[in-house]
Protein backbone atom coordinates (compact mmCIF):
# COMPACT_ATOMS: atom_id res chain seq x y z
CA UNK A 1 0.00 0.00 0.00
CA UNK A 2 1.25 3.46 -0.87
CA UNK A 3 1.82 5.52 2.33
CA UNK A 4 -1.00 7.92 3.16
CA UNK A 5 0.08 11.45 4.02
CA UNK A 6 -2.03 13.05 6.77
CA UNK A 7 0.36 15.75 8.01
CA UNK A 8 -0.45 18.77 5.84
CA UNK A 9 -0.04 21.26 8.70
CA UNK A 10 3.66 20.33 8.73
CA UNK A 11 4.01 20.87 4.98
CA UNK A 12 2.13 20.27 1.75
CA UNK A 13 3.27 18.69 -1.52
CA UNK A 14 4.33 21.13 -4.20
CA UNK A 15 1.48 21.46 -6.68
CA UNK A 16 2.40 20.65 -10.28
CA UNK A 17 0.99 23.95 -11.54
CA UNK A 18 3.17 25.81 -9.03
CA UNK A 19 6.25 23.86 -10.08
CA UNK A 20 5.55 24.75 -13.71
CA UNK A 21 5.67 28.45 -12.81
CA UNK A 22 8.93 28.00 -10.90
CA UNK A 23 10.93 25.97 -13.43
CA UNK A 24 11.74 28.77 -15.90
CA UNK A 25 13.43 30.71 -13.10
CA UNK A 26 15.63 27.72 -12.32
CA UNK A 27 16.67 27.37 -15.96
CA UNK A 28 16.61 30.04 -18.65
CA UNK A 29 15.31 33.05 -16.63
CA UNK A 30 18.10 33.08 -14.08
CA UNK A 31 18.83 36.81 -13.89
CA UNK A 32 19.25 38.73 -10.64
CA UNK A 33 16.07 40.72 -10.05
CA UNK A 34 18.16 43.78 -9.12
CA UNK A 35 20.05 43.82 -12.44
CA UNK A 36 19.13 46.46 -15.00
CA UNK A 37 19.50 44.34 -18.12
CA UNK A 38 16.78 42.21 -19.72
CA UNK A 39 17.62 39.13 -17.66
CA UNK A 40 17.05 41.15 -14.51
CA UNK A 41 13.90 42.94 -15.66
CA UNK A 42 12.26 39.62 -16.53
CA UNK A 43 12.86 38.23 -13.05
CA UNK A 44 11.89 41.54 -11.41
CA UNK A 45 8.55 41.36 -13.21
CA UNK A 46 8.02 37.86 -11.81
CA UNK A 47 8.74 39.05 -8.26
CA UNK A 48 6.31 41.95 -8.57
CA UNK A 49 3.64 39.70 -10.10
CA UNK A 50 4.00 37.36 -7.13
CA UNK A 51 3.76 40.31 -4.74
CA UNK A 52 0.39 41.14 -6.30
CA UNK A 53 -0.80 37.52 -5.99
CA UNK A 54 0.19 37.24 -2.32
CA UNK A 55 -1.40 40.58 -1.48
CA UNK A 56 -4.65 39.65 -3.22
CA UNK A 57 -5.07 36.51 -1.10
CA UNK A 58 -5.01 38.50 2.16
CA UNK A 59 -6.71 41.73 1.06
CA UNK A 60 -3.56 43.85 1.18
CA UNK A 61 -1.73 46.10 -1.26
CA UNK A 62 1.32 44.75 -3.09
CA UNK A 63 3.58 47.39 -1.52
CA UNK A 64 2.78 45.91 1.90
CA UNK A 65 4.31 42.51 1.04
CA UNK A 66 7.93 41.88 2.04
CA UNK A 67 9.32 38.53 0.91
CA UNK A 68 11.33 36.45 3.40
CA UNK A 69 12.63 32.91 3.73
CA UNK A 70 9.51 31.73 5.57
CA UNK A 71 7.37 31.97 8.67
CA UNK A 72 10.22 31.86 11.18
CA UNK A 73 12.07 34.75 9.58
CA UNK A 74 8.88 36.80 9.22
CA UNK A 75 7.94 36.35 12.87
CA UNK A 76 11.44 37.23 14.03
CA UNK A 77 11.59 40.16 11.63
CA UNK A 78 8.48 41.69 13.13
CA UNK A 79 9.13 41.02 16.82
CA UNK A 80 12.79 42.00 16.80
CA UNK A 81 12.27 44.73 14.23
CA UNK A 82 9.50 46.33 16.26
CA UNK A 83 11.53 46.05 19.45
CA UNK A 84 14.36 47.87 17.70
CA UNK A 85 12.10 50.88 17.14
CA UNK A 86 10.19 50.96 20.45
CA UNK A 87 11.07 51.59 24.05
CA UNK A 88 10.97 48.41 26.15
CA UNK A 89 7.55 47.83 27.70
CA UNK A 90 5.24 44.83 27.68
CA UNK A 91 5.17 42.26 24.88
CA UNK A 92 1.93 40.28 24.94
CA UNK A 93 1.63 36.93 23.14
CA UNK A 94 -0.78 34.02 23.37
CA UNK A 95 0.19 30.94 25.36
CA UNK A 96 -0.19 28.78 22.26
CA UNK A 97 2.21 30.51 19.86
CA UNK A 98 4.60 28.66 17.61
CA UNK A 99 8.17 28.62 18.98
CA UNK A 100 9.25 31.12 16.31
CA UNK A 101 7.09 33.69 18.11
CA UNK A 102 7.52 32.45 21.67
CA UNK A 103 11.33 32.29 21.53
CA UNK A 104 12.05 35.77 20.13
CA UNK A 105 9.52 37.12 22.65
CA UNK A 106 11.48 35.38 25.40
CA UNK A 107 14.66 36.99 24.04
CA UNK A 108 13.05 40.41 24.46
CA UNK A 109 12.21 39.50 28.06
CA UNK A 110 15.93 39.04 28.67
CA UNK A 111 16.59 42.44 27.12
CA UNK A 112 14.36 44.55 29.35
CA UNK A 113 10.88 43.84 28.03
CA UNK A 114 8.11 42.36 30.19
CA UNK A 115 6.73 39.18 28.61
CA UNK A 116 3.07 38.42 29.30
CA UNK A 117 1.28 35.36 27.93
CA UNK A 118 -2.49 35.35 27.49
CA UNK A 119 -4.54 32.74 29.28
CA UNK A 120 -6.04 30.07 27.05
CA UNK A 121 -9.62 28.87 27.39
CA UNK A 122 -10.34 25.12 27.62
CA UNK A 123 -11.61 25.18 24.02
CA UNK A 124 -8.21 26.37 22.77
CA UNK A 125 -9.03 30.04 22.21
CA UNK A 126 -7.09 32.91 23.77
CA UNK A 127 -8.95 34.69 26.56
CA UNK A 128 -10.37 38.05 25.46
CA UNK A 129 -10.94 39.02 29.08
CA UNK A 130 -7.30 38.37 29.90
CA UNK A 131 -6.24 40.39 26.86
CA UNK A 132 -8.31 43.34 28.07
CA UNK A 133 -6.74 43.10 31.50
CA UNK A 134 -3.19 42.67 30.17
CA UNK A 135 -3.50 45.70 27.91
CA UNK A 136 -4.11 47.93 30.91
CA UNK A 137 -0.33 47.92 31.30
CA UNK A 138 1.82 49.88 28.82
CA UNK A 139 2.27 47.51 25.86
CA UNK A 140 4.42 47.89 22.78
CA UNK A 141 3.96 44.60 20.91
CA UNK A 142 1.11 42.06 20.70
CA UNK A 143 1.32 38.81 18.72
CA UNK A 144 -1.55 36.31 18.50
CA UNK A 145 -1.66 33.58 15.85
CA UNK A 146 -4.70 33.39 13.57
CA UNK A 147 -5.10 29.59 13.63
CA UNK A 148 -3.27 27.23 15.96
CA UNK A 149 -1.02 24.74 14.20
CA UNK A 150 -1.93 21.87 16.57
CA UNK A 151 -5.63 22.20 17.40
CA UNK A 152 -6.60 24.27 14.37
CA UNK A 153 -8.58 26.62 16.63
CA UNK A 154 -9.14 30.04 15.04
CA UNK A 155 -8.24 32.89 17.39
CA UNK A 156 -10.18 36.15 17.78
CA UNK A 157 -7.38 38.26 16.37
CA UNK A 158 -9.58 41.13 15.20
CA UNK A 159 -11.01 41.69 18.69
CA UNK A 160 -7.59 41.55 20.35
CA UNK A 161 -6.16 43.74 17.61
CA UNK A 162 -8.81 46.38 18.18
CA UNK A 163 -7.92 46.51 21.89
CA UNK A 164 -4.20 46.56 21.13
CA UNK A 165 -4.52 49.44 18.69
CA UNK A 166 -6.63 51.38 21.20
CA UNK A 167 -3.64 51.52 23.57
CA UNK A 168 -1.07 52.18 20.84
CA UNK A 169 0.44 48.69 20.69
CA UNK A 170 1.70 47.18 17.43
CA UNK A 171 -0.38 44.11 16.58
CA UNK A 172 0.95 41.08 14.70
CA UNK A 173 -0.56 37.76 13.71
CA UNK A 174 1.10 34.58 12.51
CA UNK A 175 -1.36 33.52 9.80
CA UNK A 176 0.73 30.64 8.43
CA UNK A 177 -1.79 27.89 9.24
CA UNK A 178 -4.83 29.96 8.30
CA UNK A 179 -3.62 30.98 4.85
CA UNK A 180 -5.61 29.32 2.09
CA UNK A 181 -8.01 27.69 4.57
CA UNK A 182 -10.13 30.62 5.71
CA UNK A 183 -10.85 34.04 4.24
CA UNK A 184 -8.25 36.56 5.40
CA UNK A 185 -8.60 40.33 5.24
CA UNK A 186 -5.55 42.18 6.53
CA UNK A 187 -7.37 45.39 7.42
CA UNK A 188 -10.35 43.65 9.04
CA UNK A 189 -8.03 41.81 11.42
CA UNK A 190 -6.84 45.11 12.95
CA UNK A 191 -3.20 44.08 12.64
CA UNK A 192 -0.06 45.99 11.75
CA UNK A 193 1.75 42.89 10.50
CA UNK A 194 0.99 39.38 9.29
CA UNK A 195 3.23 36.37 8.71
CA UNK A 196 2.69 34.01 5.75
CA UNK A 197 4.48 30.92 4.37
CA UNK A 198 4.34 29.22 0.97
CA UNK A 199 4.88 25.58 1.84
CA UNK A 200 1.63 25.28 3.80
CA UNK A 201 -0.41 26.07 0.66
CA UNK A 202 1.17 23.69 -1.91
CA UNK A 203 4.00 26.10 -2.63
CA UNK A 204 7.78 25.75 -2.20
CA UNK A 205 9.67 25.57 1.09
CA UNK A 206 12.02 28.39 1.98
CA UNK A 207 9.85 31.38 1.05
CA UNK A 208 7.35 33.44 3.01
CA UNK A 209 6.21 36.99 3.52
CA UNK A 210 5.68 39.65 6.13
CA UNK A 211 2.70 41.86 5.29
CA UNK A 212 3.04 45.28 6.90
CA UNK A 213 1.00 48.36 7.68
CA UNK A 214 3.13 51.00 5.94
CA UNK A 215 2.61 53.42 8.84
CA UNK A 216 5.01 51.47 11.07
CA UNK A 217 8.76 51.17 10.68
CA UNK A 218 10.81 48.12 11.62
CA UNK A 219 14.52 47.81 12.25
CA UNK A 220 15.77 45.31 9.64
CA UNK A 221 17.25 42.02 10.81
CA UNK A 222 19.73 42.03 7.92
CA UNK A 223 21.94 44.83 6.68
CA UNK A 224 22.97 44.79 3.05
CA UNK A 225 21.87 45.95 -0.36
CA UNK A 226 18.46 47.25 0.68
CA UNK A 227 16.30 44.66 -1.08
CA UNK A 228 12.57 44.41 -0.25
CA UNK A 229 12.17 48.09 0.57
CA UNK A 230 15.22 47.92 2.81
CA UNK A 231 13.56 45.47 5.15
CA UNK A 232 15.09 42.22 3.89
CA UNK A 233 18.43 42.58 2.17
CA UNK A 234 19.67 39.70 0.04
CA UNK A 235 19.20 38.57 -3.55
CA UNK A 236 15.62 37.45 -4.02
CA UNK A 237 14.76 33.77 -4.35
CA UNK A 238 12.94 34.41 -7.63
CA UNK A 239 11.85 30.82 -8.30
CA UNK A 240 10.52 30.46 -4.76
CA UNK A 241 8.78 33.83 -4.83
CA UNK A 242 7.16 33.07 -8.19
CA UNK A 243 6.01 29.74 -6.76
CA UNK A 244 4.58 31.47 -3.69
CA UNK A 245 2.58 33.80 -5.90
CA UNK A 246 1.26 30.91 -7.98
CA UNK A 247 0.35 28.98 -4.83
CA UNK A 248 -1.59 31.97 -3.52
CA UNK A 249 -3.52 32.26 -6.77
CA UNK A 250 -4.26 28.54 -6.66
CA UNK A 251 -5.39 28.80 -3.03
CA UNK A 252 -7.74 31.66 -3.87
CA UNK A 253 -9.34 29.69 -6.70
CA UNK A 254 -10.14 26.59 -4.64
CA UNK A 255 -10.33 27.69 -1.00
CA UNK A 256 -14.05 27.08 -0.56
CA UNK A 257 -13.93 23.76 -2.37
CA UNK A 258 -11.00 22.49 -0.30
CA UNK A 259 -12.56 23.73 2.94
CA UNK A 260 -15.72 21.76 2.28
CA UNK A 261 -13.78 18.65 1.24
CA UNK A 262 -11.51 18.86 4.28
CA UNK A 263 -14.40 19.42 6.68
CA UNK A 264 -16.16 16.31 5.38
CA UNK A 265 -13.01 14.21 5.89
CA UNK A 266 -12.38 15.66 9.35
CA UNK A 267 -15.97 14.98 10.41
CA UNK A 268 -15.69 11.41 9.12
CA UNK A 269 -12.47 11.00 11.08
CA UNK A 270 -13.92 12.39 14.29
CA UNK A 271 -17.00 10.18 14.10
CA UNK A 272 -14.59 7.25 14.02
CA UNK A 273 -12.51 8.70 16.86
CA UNK A 274 -15.59 8.88 19.08
CA UNK A 275 -16.14 5.15 18.58
CA UNK A 276 -12.71 4.31 20.00
CA UNK A 277 -13.14 6.77 22.89
CA UNK A 278 -10.64 9.40 21.78
CA UNK A 279 -10.68 12.95 23.15
CA UNK A 280 -10.66 15.61 20.42
CA UNK A 281 -9.05 18.88 21.49
CA UNK A 282 -10.55 22.20 20.44
CA UNK A 283 -13.67 20.63 18.91
CA UNK A 284 -15.95 23.12 20.69
CA UNK A 285 -14.32 26.14 19.01
CA UNK A 286 -14.21 27.30 15.39
CA UNK A 287 -11.34 25.50 13.66
CA UNK A 288 -9.66 25.39 10.29
CA UNK A 289 -11.42 22.59 8.49
CA UNK A 290 -8.55 20.19 7.86
CA UNK A 291 -7.25 19.65 11.40
CA UNK A 292 -8.07 17.14 14.15
CA UNK A 293 -5.97 16.85 17.32
CA UNK A 294 -6.82 13.94 19.58
CA UNK A 295 -5.59 11.52 22.22
CA UNK A 296 -6.60 8.11 23.52
CA UNK A 297 -6.26 7.80 27.28
CA UNK A 298 -3.36 5.56 28.26
CA UNK A 299 -1.74 5.54 24.80
CA UNK A 300 1.53 7.42 24.26
CA UNK A 301 1.33 9.79 21.30
CA UNK A 302 4.89 9.36 20.07
CA UNK A 303 4.53 5.59 20.14
CA UNK A 304 1.24 5.80 18.29
CA UNK A 305 2.76 8.02 15.59
CA UNK A 306 5.62 5.56 15.06
CA UNK A 307 3.29 2.54 14.89
CA UNK A 308 0.94 4.30 12.48
CA UNK A 309 3.92 5.19 10.30
CA UNK A 310 4.83 1.49 10.16
CA UNK A 311 1.25 0.82 9.09
CA UNK A 312 1.58 3.35 6.25
CA UNK A 313 0.03 6.52 7.71
CA UNK A 314 1.97 9.74 8.24
CA UNK A 315 0.56 11.74 11.16
CA UNK A 316 2.15 13.98 13.81
CA UNK A 317 2.36 14.21 17.56
CA UNK A 318 2.28 18.00 17.47
CA UNK A 319 4.19 20.77 15.73
CA UNK A 320 6.74 19.38 13.27
CA UNK A 321 9.50 21.63 14.59
CA UNK A 322 8.98 20.25 18.11
CA UNK A 323 8.53 16.59 17.20
CA UNK A 324 11.74 15.55 18.97
CA UNK A 325 10.54 16.88 22.32
CA UNK A 326 9.25 14.42 24.90
CA UNK A 327 7.42 17.14 26.82
CA UNK A 328 3.62 17.40 26.56
CA UNK A 329 2.26 19.95 24.11
CA UNK A 330 2.50 23.47 25.54
CA UNK A 331 -0.75 24.27 23.73
CA UNK A 332 -2.63 21.47 25.46
CA UNK A 333 -1.16 22.32 28.85
CA UNK A 334 -2.26 25.94 28.35
CA UNK A 335 -5.78 24.61 27.65
CA UNK A 336 -5.74 22.82 31.01
CA UNK A 337 -5.37 19.31 29.58
CA UNK A 338 -3.85 16.86 32.06
CA UNK A 339 -0.19 16.11 31.21
CA UNK A 340 -0.81 12.36 30.98
CA UNK A 341 -3.52 12.86 28.35
CA UNK A 342 -1.53 15.59 26.56
CA UNK A 343 1.35 13.14 26.07
CA UNK A 344 -0.99 11.02 23.98
CA UNK A 345 -1.80 13.78 21.49
CA UNK A 346 -1.78 12.99 17.78
CA UNK A 347 -2.58 15.42 14.96
CA UNK A 348 -4.19 14.52 11.65
CA UNK A 349 -4.25 17.28 9.03
CA UNK A 350 -5.81 16.39 5.70
CA UNK A 351 -5.09 17.87 2.29
CA UNK A 352 -6.28 18.15 -1.28
CA UNK A 353 -5.40 14.58 -2.28
CA UNK A 354 -6.91 12.75 0.70
CA UNK A 355 -10.07 10.68 0.26
CA UNK A 356 -12.86 9.22 2.36
CA UNK A 357 -11.49 5.75 1.65
CA UNK A 358 -8.12 6.75 3.10
CA UNK A 359 -9.79 8.06 6.26
CA UNK A 360 -11.78 4.84 6.59
CA UNK A 361 -8.65 2.72 6.26
CA UNK A 362 -6.77 4.99 8.67
CA UNK A 363 -9.49 4.56 11.29
CA UNK A 364 -9.21 0.80 10.95
CA UNK A 365 -5.44 0.93 11.38
CA UNK A 366 -5.78 3.32 14.32
CA UNK A 367 -8.30 1.14 16.13
CA UNK A 368 -6.15 -1.96 15.66
CA UNK A 369 -3.00 -0.14 16.79
CA UNK A 370 -4.67 1.35 19.86
CA UNK A 371 -6.04 -2.06 20.86
CA UNK A 372 -2.61 -3.67 20.48
CA UNK A 373 -0.82 -0.93 22.42
CA UNK A 374 -3.45 -1.04 25.19
CA UNK A 375 -2.95 -4.79 25.49
CA UNK A 376 0.83 -4.39 25.71
CA UNK A 377 0.41 -1.72 28.36
CA UNK A 378 -1.89 -3.97 30.36
CA UNK A 379 0.61 -6.83 30.18
CA UNK A 380 3.45 -4.53 31.31
CA UNK A 381 1.42 -3.39 34.31
Features:
single chain, 381 residues, alpha/beta, Aspartate Aminotransferase, domain 1, Aspartate Aminotransferase, domain 2, 2 domains, seven-stranded mixed beta sheet, three-stranded antiparallel beta sheet, 11 helices, globular
Whole-number count of domains: 2
| CATH topology tier name of the largest domain | Aspartate Aminotransferase, domain 2
What spatial form do the alpha-carbon principal axes imply?
Answer: globular
Distance between the amino and carboxyl termini: 35 Å
Please state roughly what percent of the residues sit in beta strands, choosing from under 5%, 5-15%, 15-25%, 25-35%, 35-45% or over 45%. 5-15%
Largest sheet: 7 strands, mixed
Give the integer mean of the pLDDT values.
95
CATH architecture of the largest domain: 3-Layer(aba) Sandwich
Report the count of strand segments: 12
Structural class computed from helices and strand pairing = alpha/beta
Widest β-sheet, arrangement of strands: 2-8-7-6-5-3-4
Any low-confidence stretches, pLDDT <50, length ≥5?
A: 319-323
In helices, the fraction of residues equals 25-40%
Task: Specify the CATH homologous superfamily of the largest domain.
Answer: Type I PLP-dependent aspartate aminotransferase-like (Major domain)
Order of helices and strands: EHHEHEHEHEHEEEHEEHEHHEH
Chart the SSEs and their pairings.
Elements: E1 4-5, H1 16-22, H2 38-57, E2 65-68, H3 71-83, E3 90-94, H4 99-109, E4 114-118, H5 128-134, E5 139-143, H6 157-166, E6 170-174, E7 193-197, E8 208-212, H7 238-275, E9 279-281, E10 291-295, H8 301-310, E11 313-314, H9 330-334, H10 339-342, E12 346-349, H11 356-380
Parallel strand pairs: 1-11, 3-4, 3-5, 5-6, 6-7
Antiparallel strand pairs: 2-8, 7-8, 9-10, 10-12
Amino acid sequence: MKPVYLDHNATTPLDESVLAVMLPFMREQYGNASSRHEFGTLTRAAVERAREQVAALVGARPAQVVFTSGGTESNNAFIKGAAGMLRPSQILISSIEHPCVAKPAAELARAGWKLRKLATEPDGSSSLADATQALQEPTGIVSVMLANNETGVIQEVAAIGESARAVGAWMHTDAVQALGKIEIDFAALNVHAMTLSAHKIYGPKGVGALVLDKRIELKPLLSGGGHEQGLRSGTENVAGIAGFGAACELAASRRRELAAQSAALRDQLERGLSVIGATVFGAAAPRISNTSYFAVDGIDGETLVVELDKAGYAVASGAACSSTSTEPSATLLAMGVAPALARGAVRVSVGAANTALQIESFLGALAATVARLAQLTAIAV
